[in-house]
What we know:
By secondary structure, this protein is mostly helical. It has 29 helices and no strands. It has helices spanning 2-12, 15-37, 43-53, 62-86, 90-105, 112-128, 136-163, 167-192, 197-229, 233-253, 259-265, 270-295, 305-323, 329-356, 369-373, 383-388, 395-416, 422-432, 437-464, 468-485, 490-508, 512-536, 542-545, 547-569, 571-601, 610-636, 644-665, 678-701, 709-745. The two termini are 53 Å apart. Keywords: Cell membrane, Membrane, Transmembrane, Transmembrane helix.
Amino acid sequence: MKAYLKTIEIFLKSSHFYRGVRLTFAVVTPLILFYFIGNFDYALPIVMGAFLNAPGDIPGSLKRKVNAILISTVLTMLIFTIILFCKPYLPLLIVVLAAISFFISLISVYGFRASLVSFSGLLAMVLAFAVQKETASEIFSHVLLLGCGGLWYLLISYVFRKLAPKKDEVQFLSETLTLTGEYLQLRARLLTKKTKRQELMQKAFVLQSQINEKHEILRELLFLERKRSGRSHYDEKHLLIFISSVNIFELIEAKNLDYNDMDRLFKDRKYLRASKNLNKVMGSQLMTLSDLLIKNDKVSDKDILLNTLSKVKDNIRQYIDDVQLPKAREGALVLRNLYDYQEHIAQEVRAIRRVMANVKDSSKVSLKRQDTSQFLTLQEYRLNVILQNFSLNSTLFRHALRFTVAMVFAFILGTLLDIRNTYWILLTIIVIMRPNYGLTKERSKDRIVGTLIGAAIAVGIVLLTQNVIIYAVLAIISLTLAFSLVQQNYKSSAVFITINIVFVYSLINPDAFQVIQYRVIDTILGASIAVIANYMLWPSWEALNLKNVLVDALNKNQKYLIATQNLYHDKTENELAYKLARKEAFLAIGNLNSAFQRLTQDPKSKQKEFQLIYGMVTLNQTMVSAIASIGSFIINHQTTPASKEFDALILRIANTLQSSCSILNDTPIDCETTTIDIEKAQDKLMESYHSLSKTRDANILKGETELDTETLHNLQEAYLIANQLVWLKTLSENLEKATLKYHEAI
């Protein structure tokens, strides 16, 4: 019960609920105002305008939010005007319906915010069918009030933002900490769950994509506002938390271990339990901090991380005592490298704790504005973006075509069968139909189940009471919850949307059971049409659409590798370029992971070369981790100068990645060459580690058992650099072979 109440408390303090309250306030206020004025007809188009233009109100910079709402307001007014004037002429109306459906859905090529503006336009088109206006003056009057509703919502959004300017930042920081904590705990399970690694890795792909998405939103929220308005105390705190969360994510990525090697070295799992427990504790700490951030509670003084870190160090000593040097050296270095990365994560977690506790000596952010702006991913809004997508090769173009056919078919079907509320079928198609078959199927299922649950709840309430005041109160509450949950839990949102529609219609039409009946039937019809259209019409099976995503991941991995090489040569000069390349590589691998998740949602018969694709995704993911492992070590340690053998191996790996890109693009291979023998370079790097190991063995024989920090770091560096480069070379070669097989298969 306590956990349940805690979840409710966090939800009520979240920006998602705050957004639902915003919309409810914008909708209810005109209704109350015009009710007392006595001219209720004016209230409905204003309410509709507010509701239609709310989707564009998503987290981001104020300028982008204002632009989105203004554009959607103009778009909804224009679409309403066209539909209302064309309604008396059925053939013309069908043509207009097709044209609007196609071109407005194609706006989605400009990114997520544009897709919500597109949704507003399509929603306006459907709701225009429910409006009965005949004369030109009635139409223009209605459209003008609709525009006023859009501007009214913009004003409400602006006022609410001023009242709680950091609500979105806090929400996304909290969600990022939760996801990062879950990711840490999943990595803990990967250490010892030998039989479940493929399943856990697929879950890791999902978490990586989600964390990358949160980071992108936070960059816009934190960096754009910081550029425009300077830096406040809260900005400073939030930026510090964000930077620490990014560092933690990189450190986690940097230790995507060679689990086969771990299984070989540690047949007895007890030597991994301390490290596993440390990951769990750090993950739990991040999730606790996430809750405290939302609730704005004080951070506890109790810090268990130091004690848990101490247990990991004791475990390493115990391993050395049990196995004995020199036999224990390789395993001890693996455990020590693992401990180092966990220690750095623990430092970042403790840094977040200090910031949230307002400790005075917590770090300050020193970021140049021109540097931070480079981390922003800016959307291109030129006309050529649409022109480039005007081809059947474009996933979004095919989606626009099938969406248009589905909408026209549903409208004609509803007209021929004289269905009472045809626009409900159209509305269902708009809400659930997505470019990807799996997501459309999932949303269809959630929509139908949510509608049935909502209808059942509404029936129960109608049987218990026929009180219009209760209907009105429930309509308001359900609207708030529906809009709050729409991006978090679509099934729950569908429940409250159904409840809201039933009670709104019940206020107008006393026969609530008839409303529920039509609502359920129309939802099932719309969902069925959407799923069938996605399966039958110009389908976008992910196995055939992966090439561009793979090429992008390979290119970004290559650039990340070169940036890491430059970092090794000069840390001070190249750290910013390294971090930019790291961000791009993480985003590219996140996109690849998302594409793979979409592939798993496709029908089994359409998942061509599934195991081959899974192998390629895993290889790309492992490469990013191996590169991050080298980069993280360089940033956090004093390193020796980079050798020519290091550069030669980097060049070989980069060339192999370039070769994989050329295979996918059907272009000639154009790579740099080196005069250094790669096998000899590889042997020399390994020899450097073996030489240090022999020196250490000789010192042990002399009785010098204590290991100084410099020698330890040199051993760690030689072992990590040599092993990671050899591993990267093997990975890149395996990836090239897999790429060739994939290219031949498609």
